[in-house]
C-alpha cells in the first residue's frame, strides 16, 4: 500500500534470550524450524503492500543483515524504495538526538523520499498475523492522531510483565497507558500514524531531551492526542525470554496452534534449497516439525528440527529444539533442550533440562 511505510524498531527490544543472542540480535533468532522472528512482521508488511521498510538496529545485526539481504523474499528488492537497515550515526558531533530518536533524526531522508502518507511502527517480539491494512482503515475511520494495536490476554504470563497495558473506552479511544499487571489489554508495540505528525513529534522530543518515541512523544502527550485502539483477535505470542521462546515453540506442535499462526497468511523467509529430510529404517519420529536436509536414524518426539540436523542411530530427542546443522551422536539422550546452530553432541552424552527451564547450548559448541 503506497499510503503506508514501515518502521521495524529493534533498538529497545528486551534481550532475554541469553545464549541464543550471544551472536545475534533477538529479531534474528531462528524459530519454528525455518524462520527468524523478524519474518512475521516483515510478512505482515508485505501482505499490506508496503514498499518502503526501515529497520532500526544498534547492535549484533550481522546475522540479521545476512538473513534479510536485499529483501527479495518479501518483495523488497526494488529500484526505488525497498528495505533499509539503518544503524544510528555516531559521527555528527552537533547531533542533539539520543536513544532511539537518533535513528529518526539521522535518517530523515528515508521519510522524506517515501511517498507514503502514514507510517506503521512495530517491533519483532510480538508474533501475530495482524492485517495492517485493516489497522490503517480503522485509523482513518476514527480520525485519530495515532492508533495503537492491542490484544486481550486474560491470563498474562511472565513475558507480559514488561508490556504496556491500555485502558480502552467504549468508543475505542485510549484513556490511559500503564504497566498494571492485572490488566488484560496488552499493547503489541505497534502503531499507525500520519508521517508528518510522527516527524513533528520526534523533532519536539529531540529538542526537549527525549530519547524514546513511545514514552516521550505518545505517553506524555496522551491527553493532547486523539489516540485510538485497534483490537487484534488473532494468534499472538510475546517472545522476550528463553522460557517464552521455548513454550511458544513447543505450542506449535499442536496442529491447531500451528494453523492459527501459519494457516491464514504465508510467512515468508530467506529461501534455502535443501534436499528432503531422510528417515532411515531405525528412525522413530512422532509429533515433530522436521525441516529439509535432516538425516534421522534415531528417535525424535515432540521436538523441532531445523535444516540439516543429523540424528545418529540410537539417539533420543524429546521435547527439544535443535537448530540448523547440529549433529546428535549415537546413543545421545536429549530432553527439554535447546541447541543453537552447529552444535555437535558426541556419542553417549545425556543432557536434560526442565520444561519450565530448558537446558540451552550456544552455537558452535562441541561436547
TrEMBL record:
<keyword id="KW-0320">Glycogen biosynthesis</keyword>
<keyword id="KW-0548">Nucleotidyltransferase</keyword>
<dbReference type="InterPro" id="IPR011831">
    <property type="entry name" value="ADP-Glc_PPase"/>
</dbReference>
<comment type="similarity">
    <text>Belongs to the bacterial/plant glucose-1-phosphate adenylyltransferase family.</text>
</comment>
<dbReference type="Pfam" id="PF24894">
    <property type="entry name" value="Hexapep_GlmU"/>
</dbReference>
<dbReference type="InterPro" id="IPR005835">
    <property type="entry name" value="NTP_transferase_dom"/>
</dbReference>
<feature type="domain" description="Glucose-1-phosphate adenylyltransferase/Bifunctional protein GlmU-like C-terminal hexapeptide">
    <location>
        <begin position="283"/>
        <end position="350"/>
    </location>
</feature>
<dbReference type="InterPro" id="IPR029044">
    <property type="entry name" value="Nucleotide-diphossugar_trans"/>
</dbReference>
<protein>
    <submittedName>
        <fullName>Glucose-1-phosphate adenylyltransferase subunit GlgD</fullName>
        <ecNumber>2.7.7.27</ecNumber>
    </submittedName>
</protein>
<feature type="domain" description="Nucleotidyl transferase">
    <location>
        <begin position="18"/>
        <end position="159"/>
    </location>
</feature>
<dbReference type="GO" id="GO:0008878">
    <property type="term" value="F:glucose-1-phosphate adenylyltransferase activity"/>
</dbReference>
<keyword id="KW-0808">Transferase</keyword>
<dbReference type="Pfam" id="PF00483">
    <property type="entry name" value="NTP_transferase"/>
</dbReference>
<dbReference type="InterPro" id="IPR011004">
    <property type="entry name" value="Trimer_LpxA-like_sf"/>
</dbReference>
<dbReference type="InterPro" id="IPR011832">
    <property type="entry name" value="GlgDAde_trans"/>
</dbReference>
<dbReference type="InterPro" id="IPR056818">
    <property type="entry name" value="GlmU/GlgC-like_hexapep"/>
</dbReference>
Amino acid at each position: 500500500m503506497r499510503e503506508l511505510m514501515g518502521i521495524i524498531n529493534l533498538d529497545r527490544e528486551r534481550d532475554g534470550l541469553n545464549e541464543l543472542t550471544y551472536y545475534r540480535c533477538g529479531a534474528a533468532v531462528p524459530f519454528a524450524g525455518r524462520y527468524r522472528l523478524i519474518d512475521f512482521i516483515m510478512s505482515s508488511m508485505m501482505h499490506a503492500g508496503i514498499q518502503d521498510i526501515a529497520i532500526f538496529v544498534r547492535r549484533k545485526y550481522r546475522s540479521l543483515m545476512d538473513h534479510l539481504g536485499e529483501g527479495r523474499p518479501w518483495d523488497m528488492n526494488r529500484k526505488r524504495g525497498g528495505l533499509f537497515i539503518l544503524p544510528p550515526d555516531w559521527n555528527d558531533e552537533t547531533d542533539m538526538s539520543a536513544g532511539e530518536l537518533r535513528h529518526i533524526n539521522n535518517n530523515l531522508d528515508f521519510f522524506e523520499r517515501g511517498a507514503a502518507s502514514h507510517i506503521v511502527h512495530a517491533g519483532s517480539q510480538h508474533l501475530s498475523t495482524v492485517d495492517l491494512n485493516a489497522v490503517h482503515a480503522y485509523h482513518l475511520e476514527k480520525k485519530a492522531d495515532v492508533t495503537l494495536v492491542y490484544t486481550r490476554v486474560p491470563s498474562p504470563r511472565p513475558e507480559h510483565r514488561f508490556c504496556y497495558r491500555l485502558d480502552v473506552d467504549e468508543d475505542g479511544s485510549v484513556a490511559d497507558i500503564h504497566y498494571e499487571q492485572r490488566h488484560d489489554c496488552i499493547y503489541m508495540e505497534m502503531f499507525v500514524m500520519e508521517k508528518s505528525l510522527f516527524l513533528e513529534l520526534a523533532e519536539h522530543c529531540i529538542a526537549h531531551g527525549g530519547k524514546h518515541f513511545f514514552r516521550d512523544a505518545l505517553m506524555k502527550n496522551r491527553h493532547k492526542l486523539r489516540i485510538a485502539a485497534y483490537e487484534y483477535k488473532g494468534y499472538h505470542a510475546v517472545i522476550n525470554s528463553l522460557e517464552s521462546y521455548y513454550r511458544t515453540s513447543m505450542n506449535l506442535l499442536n496442529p491447531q496452534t500451528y494453523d492459527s499462526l501459519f494457516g491464514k497468511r504465508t510467512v515468508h523467509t530467506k529461501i534455502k534449497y535443501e534436499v528432503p529430510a531422510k528417515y532411515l529404517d531405525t528412525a522413530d519420529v512422532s509429533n515433530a516439525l522436521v525441516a529439509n536436509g535432516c538425516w534421522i536414524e534415531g528417535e525424535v518426539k515432540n521436538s523441532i528440527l531445523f535444516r540439516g540436523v543429523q540424528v545418529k542411530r540410537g539417539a533420543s530427542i524429546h521435547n527439544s529444539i535443535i537448530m540448523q546443522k547440529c549433529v546428535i551422536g549415537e546413543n545421545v539422550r536429549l530432553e527439554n533442550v535447546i541447541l543453537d546452530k552447529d552444535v555437535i553432541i558426541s556419542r553417549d552424552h545425556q543432557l536434560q533440562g526442565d520444561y519450565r527451564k530448558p537446558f540451552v547450548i550456544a552455537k558452535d559448541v562441541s561436547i
